[in-house]
Amino acid sequence: MRKPKSFMRRILHSIFNVGLSAKMGLLVIVGVISMISLFAYLGTAALAESTQRNLQERVILAQMTASYMDALLENTESVLNYVASEPYWAEAVQFDSAMDQAYRRLSFAASRIIVVDSNANALAVKPVVLQPVSLADFAPVMAALNGTPFAVSRVVQSHPILGSVLLAAAPIRNGSGKITRALVIVLKIDATNNRAFAHPIGLGQSGYLDLIATDGLILASTRPTRVGQQSDHEDSLTSMIRDHRQAVSACHDCHTPLATSAPLAEVLAFAPLDRVPWGITIRQSESEVFASTQLLQTRIFGLMAVMLMGALSLVYLTTRSVIVPVQELTEATRRIAAGDLDSPLQEYGHDEVGILARSFDEMRERLKASAEEIHALNRELDARVQERTAQYQAAAEENARLYAELARKEQLRGELLHRVIYAQEDERKRIARELHDETSQSLSALMVGFDTAQIAMAQDTQKAGAHLRNSKAVAESLLKNIHRLISDLRPSLLDDLGLVPAIAWYGEQRLNPLGIAFQLNERGMNARLDPSMETSFFRIVQEAITNISRHAQATEVSVNLEHQGNYITLQICDNGRGFDPQILQRTDALGQGLGLRGMQERASILGGEFDLQTAPGKGTIITLRVPLPEGEAIHVQDPSVDG
Fold it and tell me: Most buried one in 265, 433, 518, 635, CB count within 10 A?
């Protein structure tokens, strides 16, 4: 309970101990700010209400258009079902006249009518199409043949003869009520026969209206050039059509021509249709939608600025006429407190300020006399303090140096420990992966083979012998894999013959069976390196070749090893598919990227420079340049060995 009380006491103490000018200014400003805050609150509420009203108007307009489209589709359904129920479809002599009557009745919504048989093959098309027409791939047609009273395409589909179409279909039944045919129409929903798009209302100068299919394709628009294009908000619009929900939000016109500047900020309102999984979008520039709101905002903030300027002017006039003398007296007393005892205070008359000034001047003279007596003692005390301070500073600097050295050594120890643990874990993961992917699976296959041979032994010795031969082949493959794993862990060539033969052997035995051409180029490698350096170089090449064989899809790999001056340069190139180099900045949960990170770590331990050049489809080049430490022990290579 003491903490809040103490906090409030500090606040009150701060308020009552500020200057007179600040107090008066604070009172005036608090009053004005209170009025401005109330005014701002009311103005903000009005702006928010105006904004919501403008947004709601767009949603209502989208809903009205969606309702109009639903009514148009409902009318189309009614007429289509009525025409499909006419009895003359069953009489061949009246078929042509039936097509003419159907086309006249449905011309308000259809650009073409088609009658198909039970296999969705066209029996008649009007306007006439000379080629055979099949609509078996169109869901509305098959739905009508299966009994759906009225079916409409969800998306625009392409037909090799009819082109890109939206279809609506209704079943045709014979006298016994069995569905034998279907009446299909190609919908026309463009602006020429659609009042909602031909004569839109409430869109202003910049607004436009789109009819969107469930796949994001624009079926109709008040801007004819947009028809047939993919909407720039395909995913979100598809989601809202699927969930049958309306929305309004801010967006940007992504269809602005490239010649213009930045995309235009717009307001997008969406409303779904009820009868078909389509939706209506209304888009209009924010500047036009919120023109009245912005004007109101400008007026509100302009009035607030005028009120604030008036308050500041009032504070300024008050301080100039009342508080300036008090401030000058306060400044004089501050000079005295700072040690200026030679400058007399200014006379301010015989009022309270003048009496206060004379009292301070008398105090100044007495302080001056006392200060001269104290200066001698202060000089002696200063000398002692400086001597003791110098001693403390020397001790502090020594402690700081020791602490920095200890921190540096602790950081170095942590880094070394991290590298050792990382290298161990990486090697364990690789061995575990090899054992799991190859050895354990081969052992499982071998066990299954033995079990099968044991079962077959009691029935057919020839089959048992075949199973044993297969098991022997699996065992031989397992033995080869184990030998290869042992060689991967530590090839004997690296210890016996050195780095160059070990790299040549590993590259050929790993890549040649995969149909990948391998080439090793060495220059100046006439002497062996320190064993730890040779091991690091070999592990880097081993990891790179492993990555290439698994991921690169390369046909050629070359390794270049050069000893020049005090540097060893290793370069590994492939003509594979390459990858995104940003993979080095992240390692996923499956360990992707650890190989490259391991190569970088080994290069860092050697004190070398690691460089990676790659891009998708451009192949990969890995370059390592390592300095030879001074006094590095070099083992002369056996001249009888061909490097």
Answer: 518
